[in-house]
Amino acid sequence: MSETVEAMSETVEAMSETVIDTRHLTREYSRDEYKVVALKDACLEVQKGEFLALMGPSGSGKSTLLYLIAAMERPTAGELRVLGQDLNRLSDGEIAHWRNAHIGFVFQSFNLIPVLTALENVELPLKLTHLKKRERHEHAETALKLVGLSDRLKHFPRQLSGGQEQRVAIARALVTDPDLILVDEPTGNLDAKSANEVLEILAKLNKDYSKTILLVTHDPHAARFATKVRYLDKGELLPEGQKPAD
Amino acid sequence: MKIPLAYNLRNLAVRKATTLMTALGIALTVAVLLTTMAMVEGLNSLLRSSGNPLHVLVMRKGSSDELSSNLNRQVFQDLKFKSGIARGKGGDPLASLEMVIVVNLPSVDNPDGSNVTFRGVSPAGLEMRDHIRLASGRWFQPGRAELVVGKYIASRFPDARLGKKIRLARADWEVVGVMDAANSAANSEVFADVNQLSADNNRTEVLSSALIRAADEAAAPALIRDLEADRRLNVTALTEKEYYELQMRSGDLFRYLGLFVSLIMAVGSAFAAMNTMYAAVARRTREIGALRVLGFSRASILTSFLIESLLLASLGGLLGVLLVLPLNGFSTGISTITFSEVAFHFRVTPPVMAAGILFALVMGTMGGLLPAGNAARKQILTALRDI
Amino acid sequence: MGRYFPLVWKNASRNRRRSLLTISSLALSLCLLGLMMAIYHALYLSETDPAQALRLFTRNRVSITLPMPAFYLQRILAVGGVKQAMEFQWFGGAYKDARDPKNFFARFGIDPNKIFTLYAEMRMPEDQKKAFQSERTACIVGRRLAEKHNFRLGDRITLQGNIYPMALELVVRGIYDNELDPESLYFHWEYVRQAMPGRDQLSAISILADSPDSVPRIIHAVDEQFRNATVQTRTETERAFGLSFLHMMGNVKLILFSICAAVTFTIMLVSANTMAMSVRERVREIGILKTLGFRPSAILGIILSEAMLIALMGGIASYFLARALCGVIRSGPAFSSELMTLTIRPQVALVMQLAAVMIAFVSSFVPAWSAARINILEALRRTD
Ligand SMILES: Nc1ncnc2c1ncn2[C@@H]1O[C@H](COP(=O)(O)OP(=O)(O)OP(=O)(O)O)[C@@H](O)[C@H]1O
Ligand SMILES: [Mg+2]
């Protein structure tokens, strides 16, 4: 994906580039007669190099917003441009390709492939690129080194602790050198110490490698690692600096 | 193929028991098919070595087999001097007047008795069948009630071993030799002096058939046309090869039975494979979601699961081939349309094995396509939320 | 066990697709098993039809293809217990193009005045019988043969002889019904005899005994009578005679047994596999059942019952499949008269169901047993 690498280096210069731009983004779920508005009229702009934390009570629509940005779900209404791309216009196949090239995603429950080793798990998204076997290997090793796991390359997920698994997942998210890293409650399943390690890695990625990161979390401590915090409440994205009243 | 093969192989290995059971089911199905095919291969090879393309068999017009054919000595004397017939060592035409009868003898498989073909041959007939060697004993002497048996007859019919006596129509005939006929049907026949055998059956003038050798490949069709056209002779002629093909039609029964059983079993095994693959898809629903988030397309998910199913099936195919391999060389008898037994070997040849693997792959595809499609259709978020 | 049935039923129907696939897979294999058992039963176990039980065949001891002197028929008629005896001559020959297998049907020369006594199960209108008996060139054909070749009363049929070098010109005078033998042609043997006076020989004689008790006596008496003649005979019941023909085709029993073995083993694999999969998916639930106080024996019972329930459904489906296949075989080529009336008898149907349940029991025992003994905590911790 050499084009992406070039595109990246261009954007490094133009610091104030908009990475995420949503206009009146709405997502409704209807089940039987019920209609749930998971996200209502959300207008969000994220600039390159930002580390934004999304907070809010359970069910407020944080994950929904994240999934829409990752194009894992399509909005019912509104516009959505991510990295300059109008996602509504892309087909399924194009989206898969786009996601592989530009997005890194980290789940609360890791979602590593149990039958693959740490190294193979990290290498997996690179299989979709044109990189040669040796290069893939090197990239994956570098990513694992970055998250402090260079001594665990050959381990299977079940041989790792939760914190280590999550760090493998982060390595897997950043190995393709994505423009945008989306993280959904990465510390939910972790103890305080492991959580800190994971968050420090994210902060370092933001600071040292100027990665744009969107972090969904419940944990105010986690939000402190971010450069900016936005709140959601009952599907509405609150204006900057405003917290939900409780 | 974007998702690594190791992913599929390891998943198969993780569920050892399920993988093995499904593969074994496929293996048994393949084994049934291959047994049938090995039999057909064996029959074909028997046919190839039995029918010499230069040899022309002459029977009375309207006859479908030597047993029901009647050929007069006089007719034989006439056809012997047709042109295009090869000459033997002594300069005489290579033509043999023969007499064929079948005799019921108890065999090792069938104590109630199986039919054995007894053939009266002339010295020219022996000269023409140059692929036959004497394995033990000696040849029969003209004018004596002596028999030389094919090697399968010697091993499958206890009453026809060297030194035994067999009672035919009148006389007691002694088995004086065993012949090895290089995998041809003569291994399943008993040879005797034609004059002696016809006298024993009280039909010295009316015999069964004539075998003649054409001078060369080109002469054979001409000779056949010539004989068929001669109204005075009133005979039918065909190459020995064609004749044996017609004789072994009863192999069709087994071929159809084998195909029928293996087809039904194949559908059953495909269902079983489908079950296994659906379970694999269900178990790995979250992984599928994660793979999709990493950017793998629906197509690569589909391919990956289909490949896994094919891997499973090829394991089954390999096991199936291993199961039938011991059959290779195993010999058994099959009945010709005149109900006499001809022995042949099962032959598990490389093409037969390849067909078995291919058959397994077809089952793998039938079993894997729907579950793989199911995996590919999963919505990312639904997949990720699966518990 | 009865009160657990709702639970067993729920479990079996919770993954409907899997249960259906398993049932279909089992049904296909079991139907083959049933079919092979039905064939075995028809060939070796079923009682002979009462008419058939009284009939015997005599032939040359050496081979059916060799003849006996024609006067043997008179000698056999004189044997005690013989009610009737008749020549039963295979004519062979060719009808139209002999290469077409459709034209390869059985044609026998018989005595038209005796055949309806010997073969009382042959049904034909009285006027057709009369017409057949009174005309030397008349012949009768089986209903199915007539349908295949579109033979009508009055049609001419020419058979080109090979063993008997002559052409038989026949006229269809009757169409008979006989389930055991629906595809043969019968004509006056007298016709051939007069055309070829020199060859007064017979290759088979059909005998009707006056009672079942006479049958063994006749077999003995006939063969004994010709023991020291040039041509010795072999006499056997019609059924044994038919089977010997089938056996010449190969080792039928061995083939039936090997297919049954392969099929049975496949069923075991399918059933064991399904149960193993569904138990594995439910390990946590089994843990929960255990914390609720279910005893291992109850869990064992629930899982075994589920397997047997599924197998039984497969068994029932296989019964209908096998019946349909029997129909296919009945309408196929007539290899043996036993197969012409092939059906799945109640005994066979029952054995099929028993086999299904037994196989399910055996194959699900291992997964059920390990589920019953699993440690609660381990079960609850299991995630897949
Ligand atoms: N597939 C769905 N079908 C129906 N409703 C849904 C679906 N997904 C989300 N919702 C609803 O949308 C709303 C927002 O859900 P979302 O997952 O975005 O919340 P969240 O802020 O991430 O909560 P949490 O902090 O608990 O993860 C919820 O009320 C939820 O019930
Ligand atoms: Mg959430």
Order of helices and strands of chain B: HHEEHEEHEEHEEEHEEHEHHHHEEHH
Number of strands of chain C: 13
Instruction: Give the overall shape of chain C, derived from the CA principal axes.
Output: elongated
Question: Structurally, how many domains make up the residues of chain B?
Answer: 2
Cα radius of gyration of chain B in angstroms: 29 Å
Helix/sheet category of chain B:
alpha+beta
String of helices and strands of chain C: HHHEEHEEEEHHEHEEEHEEHEHHHHHH
Mean pLDDT of chain B: 87
Give start-end ranges of low-pLDDT stretches of chain C.
Answer: none
Largest interface: B-C, 59 and 53 residues
Strand order of the largest sheet of chain C: 4-6-10-7-9-8-5
Structural class of chain C: alpha+beta
Give the percentage of residues in beta strands of chain B: 15-25%
What do these coordinates show?
The complex is a heterotrimer of chains A (246), B (387) and C (384). Chain A is an alpha/beta fold. Chain A has one domain (2-237): Rossmann fold, CATH 3.40.50.300. Chain A is built from eight helices and ten strands. Chain B is built from 13 helices and 14 strands. The longest helix of chain B is centred in the N-terminal third of the chain and has 35 residues, at 16-50. The mean pLDDT of chain B is 87. Chain B has two domains: 5-48 and 250-385, no CATH class; 62-233, no CATH class. In chain B, strand 7 (165-167) and strand 8 form a beta hairpin. Chain B has helices at 5-14, 16-50, 73-79, 123-128, 151-156, 194-200, 219-229, 240-247, 251-283, 285-293, 298-324, 350-377, 380-385; strands at 55-60, 71-72, 95-105, 114-121, 133-137, 146-150, 165-167, 172-180, 189-193, 206-207, 209-213, 235-239, 331-335, 341-345. Chain B is of the alpha+beta class and 387 residues long. In chain B, helix 9 (251-283) packs across helix 11. With 384 residues, chain C is of the alpha+beta class. Chain C has two domains: 2-47 and 251-381, no CATH class; 50-247, no CATH class. Chain C has 15 helices and 13 strands. In chain C, strands 4-6-10-7-9-8-5 form a seven-stranded mixed sheet. A four-stranded antiparallel sheet of chain C has the order 3-12-1-13. In chain C, strands 2-11 form a two-stranded antiparallel sheet. The longest helix of chain C has 35 residues, at 296-330. Chain C starts with a helix and ends with a helix. The mean pLDDT of chain C is 83. The chains are: A alpha/beta (246), B alpha+beta (387), C alpha+beta (384). The interface between B and C is large, with 59 and 53 residues. The site of adenosine-5'-triphosphate has 13 residues of chain A, from strand 1, strand 2 and helix 2.
